[in-house]
Every structure is written in C-alpha cells, then in structure tokens.
Amino acid sequence: MTRALITGNAAAAWGARLAGAEYVPAFPITPQTEIIETLAGWIDAGEMECRLVTLESEHSMITAAGAAASTGVRVFSATSSQGLLYAMEMIYAVPGYRAPFVLVNVSRGLQTPVTLEPDHNDVLAARDSGFLQLHCATCQEVLDSTLIAYRLAEDHRVRLPALVNLDGFYLSFTREPVEIPDRAAVDGFLPPYDPETTRFHAGEPVSQGVVVLGGTYYSYFRYEQHLAAQRALEVYDEVAVEFAQQFGRRYDAVETYRSEDAEIVFFMIGSFSTKAKDAVDRLREAGQAVGLVRPRLLRPYPAETLRRALEGKKGVAVIDQNLSMGMGGVLHGELAGALYGQAGMPPVLASFIGGLGGRDIAAEEFYEMAAVTRMACQEGSTPPPRLLYTADELRQMRKLQAVAHAERMEGRK
Amino acid sequence: MYRIRFHGRGGQGMKTASRILGSAFFLQGYEVQDAPRYGAERRGAPIFAYVRAARQTIQERGIILEPDLVIVADDSLVPMPAAGVLQGITARTVLLIHSGETPETWRHRLNIAGPLLTLPAEAAAGAEQRFVGTALAAAAARLVGVITHAALEQAVQLELAGLGREIVSGNLNQALAAYELMAPQAGLVSEGEARAAAACQRPDWVELPLDEADAAAAAIHAGATSVEVRTGLWRTLRPVIDYQRCNRCWWVCSEFCPDSAIRVNAEHFPEIDYDHCKGCLICVAQCPAHAISPVPESSEAQP
Asked: pLDDT-derived band of residue B41, with 50, 70 and 90 as boundaries?
C-alpha cells in the first residue's frame, strides 16, 4: 500500500488497473481523457495486461463494452457529459444483456451552452437505464468505488453494469492523498470475474438485444432488471462490509455526517458534499444541530436507509446540482417520493438548485440554506425552490447581455 | 490551513508549480489538495492553480476565495480583470510577482497595503522563463516556512521525473536559488483561520426573472467574432519565418495551423497573423524546409 497525491482521474485508472480490467474500449472527452491516457501509458509500458481499443464514438464504445462483457472478460470504460449522451441508446440497451462491467463518468454540464465544468445532469440522464450508480465525494472514494462497483455488478444476484461518478475538475483534476492498495489485497476482495453460464464462446453462440413482441415478455425482462437492481441494495451492504474488513474504509450506501442528533440536514451527492461537512462543523460550533446525509448509491435507490437516516428530522435542505427543466431538482423529487406518507418523516423538504456548470457553493450559502430550512420548520411551510444565484451574478449576466445587445444592434445597421 | 493560488499562462508550468508545492507539503506530512483550473486548454491562455495544505483532512473545494499567498508568474496578468489575480486579497495576503519591476513600483501601482514581493525576472532563471514555475514553487515553499530544503528537492524530482536528468537538474538549480533568495522572508505566509459561520455575510440571492427567449438564448448574433479576440496575446513563443529558407511549398504551415493564422500571399509566401497566432508552434514542427523558428516573446531578437 502506498499513499500518494493523485487526481480523481488517476484514482479511477488505478481502480481499473487494480481490478485487473482486461479490455478497455475508449473514446476521449474532457475532463475524462486523463483516465484512458493513464491506462494507455501503463499498457504501453507493460505494467498492465489489458487490451485498450479506441472506438470511433461513445456509442460504439458502450456497444463494445457490453459485447465484451458478454464474453466473460472484465471490462472498464470511461466517458463524460456529451459522450455519455451520445452513447445513450446503448447505455439503455446493454443492461439488458445482464453482462456486468464498470463505466466511470466524469460529470460535466450538458449543452447548450457548452461548458467543461461539472454538474450532474449528464449522469442523471442515465438514471433509468439499468446501470447501477455510485457517486463519489473524494479521490479515495473514486478508486475504492471502482473496486466495489465490480464486486456489485458481477455478483450473480445482480449482473448489471455499474456507473461510478466523479465530478469534473473538483475531483478529476484535483490531487488528494489516496491510499493505493496492493494488488494482492485487491485480489483478496475482488476475485477474478467468473461469468458462470453467461459466457459467450465461439462454439456457443448467443444473440443479445433480441426482439420480443407483446408486453408480456417485455414486462418480464424489464422488471427482472429492476428486481436485480433492487437486490443490489442488499448485496451492496455485504460488499461494503467486506471492503471495510479488507481495507479499513467503510462506505455505507448512505453516508451520514453528524446527523444522528441533527434537526436540519443537508442532502446532496458528489464532491461538494465535503464542503457541506465543513459547513456542518462551523454550524455545530455555532450551536446549531445540523448534519449531512449523502447517498453514495443512487441506483438502486436506498429508500429504506434514507428513511431511517431522516426519521425525526425537522427539515431537509436538498441541494440538487442538476435541473430537470419544468420540474426542478431531481434528488428533491426522488426523496419526496421515498418519504411521502411514511410515519415520522421530516415535514419540510426545501429544494435548492446550486453548482450548475461548476458554479461554486460558498460556505455562507450552506449557512443560509440551513437558516431558510430552519425558518420553514418554524413556520411549518415549505419554501419555494431556490436557485443559488446572487445579485452580483445577475449584474454580471446583465452586463454580458448589454454587450451582446449592443453588438446585435450594431450588426443591423 | 494554507491556501495558495498560482496565476500564469498556459505553458508557464503553473500546474507543475502547484504540484511541486503540493508534493513538498505532502512530504512534509501535510494533507494536501492541489488542482489547476483552466478554460481554454491552450498555451498562453490565462490559467490558475491552487494548493491547500493542512494538518487535518481538507473538506474545502474549488477556487480559493481568501488566499494566504498569491503567486503571479506573468506580470501582464495583474491588470487583467478576467485573470482574477487580486481576487480576495486582504491585508495579510502575501503577493509574489515574477517581474522585472520593483516591489515598490507594484505597491504603488496596485495601491495595496499587504506584503508584496517580487521574484526578479532575471533571477528566476537567467532569462530562461521556462523554469519559472519551479522557481516560484520553491519561493512559495520558503515563504510558508514549513518546508525543508530536502522536501522541496524531493518534490521537484518527483514531479519532473519523466523529463530527464538534465531538465530536473536545471529546475533544481533554479528551485534552490529561489528558495535561498526568499530566506529572509521565511515564514512570512501564515495559515488562514476557518471563518466562523456567524462572521459570514448572508448571500445576496435573487429570483431570476423569466426573460424573452430571444435574450435568454446563449447565442451570439454577429459573425466572425473570433477575429475580435486577440488570441495572439496568449503567445509566449513566436514562430518567425526565415524567408530565405522558405521554399514556398505554400501549403504545409498554413494547412497545419489549427487557428488558420497563416495565409499564403500572392507570391506563395506564408504570412503569419500574429494577432491570432497562439504560438502553438505546430508550423515550426511541420515546416519541411525548417524555415520557421520559435522566438520568445520577451526576447530582443523578435523582428
């Protein structure tokens, strides 16, 4: 084991290397490219025994990943943002193969307009695909989650592909101290992939992506994917315990931070949740009972665990780093669905949209979200959804628009 | 926690500088977070990088709003608002500028009260600007005062290992020179405190109004706007054509130029549009007659 400063991208590459990934179909996109570059470097130097193939698109890349996984090899791939969207037809198709592999997504906001910096609309577009989803907050978690994802995806009770998400820039290009385990320790946790009967050989042909007409057959096959994903909740808990035994780091499906006796909790995913922990510490110093609840596992959705974590709380500030146009924050809606009608659940779920396109969420904004939620609890009414956007930002925007308008008028002369 | 920001241009080694300083802190037993931040991933474009170092796990993320130390590799960035060099500077922030001008000149120019130092441009590397990132990382290491000579040396070797012995040794020399130069100021930079929740101003949130689609679409209603942006300012090295050597093949440099900044004139000679050439030097590499040479922008040798 070595402890080194590495980026989130390098951590993802280390996860693939230590997992003994045998096949990597690849296509570059910022801010993910460093992952496949790192893997390519290792393969080229003979440090990693693996076949890396550059495909002509992410659509082909995911097709290749699903097909290769069906042959029984351990497959790794990575993408981001528009790349994930370009692959979307196959992202929804390959889980039905019931052949596991791990895909890392480095979150980056979607167009239009184009950006390079992160929010979660890309990965949430894959929400209903059948891929399992693990969301990371630190570079260490990226490496560890990649290993956990293989165990989870390959478990014979699950057999679905898994997606590990990390935020562009805030993790992808950020170095943090990461414990890189030895291969032997990883082998003890993650044995070689045993595809059992799902293996496709030249002498035993298999057709994937078949047609079924009539809802009867279709409903069966689709619902089986859902049941397998749900079963992954229980499998995840087992895997997390084994991981902790092997490596001493515990990754529950839902992370709770100082939330046991909290009245108000922040609820969010991704790397900004470490900033929320800082805010929790500062608010605790000021005598406020505030905590954080963060689902690591978003698919399957750990509804029961979340209910246990939130039972008896007065209010929840749900921070969505995503936006469903015409609806609002995706996490907020999902959490409301999980809590509604259940006894003892917090009466106030305040919705905040922040961090779109990598916009910072400042410490004072966390304090204010806690204050708004507390006020709502006292008044007994849920506040309207709030975009984290300041008067200064709007002034900056208006200035840009004024320049654009002047130029447009100039052009018409 | 130490919060340190490096400002420079793509190609000046700001990411590497932040990594050298980050590794030095790490070798010294600190928890560390270092990261570059760039928009246009191009040589010469303004970029910044940051380092956080603390004895405990670092939970903060992203841009450093209240730096303890700000380091500027290219002094032309200081007056450029978009570069954000002066953002969040307080009376206790140390500002270190790599510049040929004196600290007094800068203090007068910027009208700031806090500590301001320069790393003299010529002292950085005998006008070898390419070592500036390493020298600035070393200067920072001395200014925080908690990084030993040995940790700095090991960090330089670690971060530059892939570049060959000669480059490592050149960088080490520059690093140690800058480390020595800053010796009288060792420990000038102190760790910033965590700010209490009550000490923070409430955010001035606003409701976004619904605007007309026409104004709210991310569209630019004008043509050829890229002509207006003088990306030539990003250049640190200038390709210069030796017309004695140019054999007027007329297409190679021009075809390979990713910015269409080389035109071929009526006599079939290429002409470089220095307003838009970013200095990527692909033309230098491609020219079959080896007629194009790179010349540092700061050099007297430019035409």
From this structure: low
Report pLDDT digits (tens) over A57-70: 999 999 999 999 99
Identify the domain containing residue B268 by its residue range: 231-296
Q: In terms of domains, do B239 and B184 share one? A: no
CATH superfamily of A2-247: Thiamin diphosphate (ThDP)-binding fold, Pyr/PP domains (3.40.50.970)
Q: Over the stretch B104-140, which tens digit does the pLDDT of each residue have?
A: 999 999 998 899 999 998 644 444 456 789 999 999 9
Which chain A residues are Cβ-neighbours of B6 within 8 angstroms? Answer: none
Query: In the prediction, which pLDDT does B127 show?
Result: 43
Whose CA is closest to A149, among A131, A137, A167?
A131
Q: What is the ipTM of this complex?
A: 0.94
The answer to whether the CB atoms of A364 and B201 lie below 8 A apart is: yes
By Cβ distance, the residue of B59, B200, B201 closest to A278 is B59
A37 pLDDT more than 90: yes
Q: Are residues B84 and B166 in the same domain?
A: yes
Q: Any idea what the CATH number is for the domain that residue B247 is in? A: 3.30.70.20
Q: Are residues B68 and B126 in the same domain?
A: yes
**Assigned domain for B202 exists:** no
Q: Where are the domains of chain A?
A: 2-247, 255-392
**Could B218 and A365 be called an inter-chain contact, meaning their C-beta atoms sit closer than 8 Å?**
no
Residues 151 to 190 of A: which have CB under 8 A from any B CB? 169-170, 173-177
pLDDT tens, residue by residue, B1-19: 999 999 998 888 899 999 9
* CATH number for the segment(s) A255-392: 3.40.50.920
Picking from B145, B177, B194, the residue at the C-terminal end of a domain is B194
B175 with B53, same domain: the answer is yes
| Domain tally, chain B | 2
Q: Tell me the per-residue pLDDT of A277-309, one tens digit each, with 9 for 90 and over.
A: 999 999 999 999 999 999 999 999 999 999 999
Is A413 an interface residue toward B (CB < 8 Å)? Answer: no
The pLDDT, as a whole number, for residue A76 is: 98
